[in-house]
Write a structure and sequence with these properties.
By secondary structure, this protein is an alpha+beta fold. It is built from twelve helices and 13 strands. Helix 2 crosses helix 12.
Length: 313
């Protein structure tokens, strides 16, 4: 990777043209997207890049056309922004954009199908079950080891997730998750350490180990709490860190992702790694993980934004 460094050359400014920062949207992650977009806008101001912020709503196509942009920085999270739909709009309008394309964005947004794909290419991910209102809660728990994570298949930011260990808790967690998504999965709980690996221009950045006093790394731990611990360097041996980075890159490539993203991984007590999910438009807020990893790699926030943009050329 050849990261973009400040100050920005006139040649790169000309290549990038007018950048539209797409933010906000209508998903349950709107507020996080607004924060991410504001941070990206501030970075473009610092770098002297011509730009405009576009809050993506019901008139998205007209608003994007009216802004007369040359490329888009996607700071949208969740449904409508991270699932291939806005990517399809931009492809139709022939506007280059940051991150993954239509198919890989849609696939990565679907935790169930991503896990099915990973299992098909022999990449390690926890065993799982698809939940319905008619599921045998006792059997699901028994089959998955007695304790599980319940997840809406198409939500991000840990929205609708729960850690459960009784049949009643599982039934209640399903009912709650179903409010967010018609597709809900239960995943065998991996007890151990959680890591996240940022991918930038086909390079795995230094992994971050996540520690929280919450039941798991939930929405509050991600965006609100001040006691979440982000450890980088992550404390793994050089051999295990290399293994983790290779697994994250393989997972990223298997889904067909491009440009940048983030892969979340659990390690059990024997340091066996298990893939959780891939994020194709990760957060860019003050609590976000990709900027932390980029900083350890030697990139300021603005240089990270510019490198992501350069990948869209």
């Amino acid at each position: 990777m050849q990261p973009v460094k400040l100050p920005v050359s006139d040649d790169l400014k000309q290549q990038l043209g007018r950048v539209g920062v797409l933010l906000g949207g209508t998903s349950s992650e709107r507020e996080i997207s607004l924060q991410s977009g504001a941070a990206v806008v501030a970075a473009l101001v610092e770098a002297g890049i011509d730009h405009v912020a576009i809050d993506v709503g019901d008139n998205a196509i007209a608003d994007i056309q009216a802004a007369k942009i040359d490329r888009a920085f996607l700071a949208l999270h969740g449904a409508g922004g991270e699932d291939g739909r806005i990517q399809a709009v931009l492809e139709y309008l022939k506007i280059p954009f940051t991150g993954s394309g239509v198919q890989s964005s849609a696939l990565a947004m679907d935790k169930l199908r991503t896990k099915q794909l990973w299992r098909g290419v022999n990449l390690s991910t926890p065993e799982f079950a698809v939940l319905t209102a008619n599921s045998n809660w006792e059997k699901v728990l028994s089959d998955l080891g007695g304790e599980v994570m319940v997840k809406p298949a198409h939500e991000g930011s840990s929205i609708g997730m729960a850690r459960v260990k009784t049949a009643q808790e599982l039934a209640d967690a399903f009912a709650n998750a179903e409010k967010y998504d018609g597709s809900v999965i239960a995943e065998r709980l991996i007890v151990g350490s959680e890591f996240t690996v940022a991918i930038l221009d086909d390079e795995a950045l230094p992994p971050i180990k996540l520690e929280t006093d919450h039941t798991f790394y939930d929405f509050n731990a991600k965006y609100i709490a001040n006691d979440t611990r982000y450890i980088c360097p992550c404390g793994l041996s050089a051999e295990k860190e290399s293994e983790l980075k290779s697994l994250a890159l393989a997972a990223f490539h298997a889904v067909g992702c491009e440009g940048w993203g983030r892969v979340d991984v659990m390690a059990d007590k024997s340091l066996n790694f298990y893939l959780l999910e891939v994020n194709t438009a990760p957060g860019m807020t003050s609590h976000s993980l990709v900027p932390m990893a980029a900083k350890v790699r030697g990139l300021s926030f603005s240089e990270l934004v510019l490198t992501i943009l350069r990948c869209s050329l």
